[in-house]
Amino acid sequence: MSGDSQSAGVARAESLALRALAQAERPAEGLHLVRWGTNAVFRTADTVVRLADSDYDTDLLQQQVDLAIWLRSRAFPTARLLHQGVVDGQPVTVWERIAEVREPTMADLAELARRFHDVTADYDGSLPEWEPLGRLGVRMDQMEPDRVITEQALAQLREVKDHLVNQVRDVDFVLPRGPIHGDIHEGNVLVDSSGPHLIDFDRIARGPREWDLVEPLAGVVLFGQDDAEWLTFAHRYGYDLREWGPWTELLKLRAMFMFSWLLTLQRTPQVEEEVRTRLAYFLEPEAPLAPWSAI
C-alpha cells in the first residue's frame, strides 16, 4: 500500500471510528490509531474501536464476538464488549480498554494459553476449522516481484510454502484438538492490575493446540530471545513443544505467515532490510540464521 493511499484509508477509518463511538454513546476524546492491519484499531482513554473491512466475513466476526462474550461468562480474562454495529457498511466493535500496568511476560502468555485451552474444552459454539494454508495462500498469490524479491525468489518461496503446507497436513498432532486462539504473542496480551488478559480473536479456529504454542517458540528461535524464556513458557503451560518431532515444520509455516504479513507493510528501508533477512531464512536454509527483528 502506498503512503498516500494508506493515509487516506486511515483518515476514513478515523471518521468511521468517531461515528461508532457516537453509536455506542462513548466519548471520543483522545481517539488515535494503534494498529493498521486486518482491523483498523483505535483507542480512546477508556475504549478500543475495531473496524473490519467491508468485505470481512461477518459470520466469522460474529463467531469472534460470541467467543469473547462466552469467555467472560466463564471468568476468563479478556476485554468486555461495549457495542457492536455497522458504520457505512463496515462492521465495528467497541470494547472496554484494558488499563495496562506492565509489559506481558512469557509466563503470562503460557498461563493464558493453558487457561484458554482448558476453559474452551467444552465450548460448542461455531468456529471455523483450522486450515494450515489460512490467509497465507491469498497473500502469496498477491505477491509480485520487486527490487527485494525477484521473480525467481518468489517462485522458490511459493514452492517452499506448498511443501510446508503439505508437510503440516500430514503431521500427527499429539495435543487434544479444540478451540485455538491462533495468534498468541505479546501484542495480544494486556496486563492490568488484575493480571494478564488475552485479546484479538481474529484467527480463532478448531484445530491442533500446538499451533498456539509455536508463535511463542518463534520468539526464541527466530527473534533471538533467551532460551530461558521458552523454558519458562513450556513449564507454565505444561508441555514443551520441542519434545514433539515435527515442531520445526510447524515453526517454519508460522514463520511464513509472519513473513507474508511483513510484505503488507509500506516498504521503508527498515522493512526492506527485514524482508531480505526473512527471505534468506526460507531460501538459504543451510546458512546461519540471522535473527529477525520486530517491525
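The above is record 1. Record 2 follows with the same two-line structure.
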Amino acid sequence: MNKYLILAFLLFFPWVIFAQSNRVGNIGQRTLQLQDESRHRPIVTEVWYPTPDSLQKSDKVFSPFIRRYTVRNGRLPTGKRPLIMLSHGTGGGRLTLEWLAQGLVQNGFIVAAVDHWGNTYENKIPLEFLKPWERPLDISFALTALLQNSEFSKVIDPQKIGAAGFSFGVIRL
C-alpha cells in the first residue's frame, strides 16, 4: 500500500510543480450591468482577469465558490489573452462557477460569466426555465458587449474565444 502511495505522489508531484509555474499573480474581478434592450432582459456579467494590482483588505469578500480573493475593479492586464464565456446550470448564477473562472485566470485566461435572467438562484421565473434558446443569446450579447468595450477589447484576443458551462449551461452552448 505504501509503495503505491509513494508512486502516486512521485507521479503527481512533478505535475503540480509544472502546473504552478505559469500561474499569474492576482485575479481582478468586475461586475458589468448589461441590458439587452431588444429582448428586454438584464445580462449581469462577471469578469475575472489577471491583474497587476495588489489585494486590499476591502477585497476580501467571502463566497463559498471562490478559491482565492480577488481585486475588485483591478487594472486589466497588458497584451491580448484568450476569453472563456461561462454559462451556469438551471437555478445557479454567474458566481457558481467562480472556482473554475479563477483556475482559468491563474493560467492566463480572461473569463466572463453571465446570469441567465429568470433562471438564477436569486431570480426564479418558471416560464424562463422553459426558454433554453435565451441562454446562447445571453452569451452572445455579453460577448459582443465585451468585444465592443473600450477597455476589454484591448485585452481579449478575438481569435481565441471559447465557452464552458455546467449542467443545463453546457447543453445550450
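The chain has a mean pLDDT of 83.
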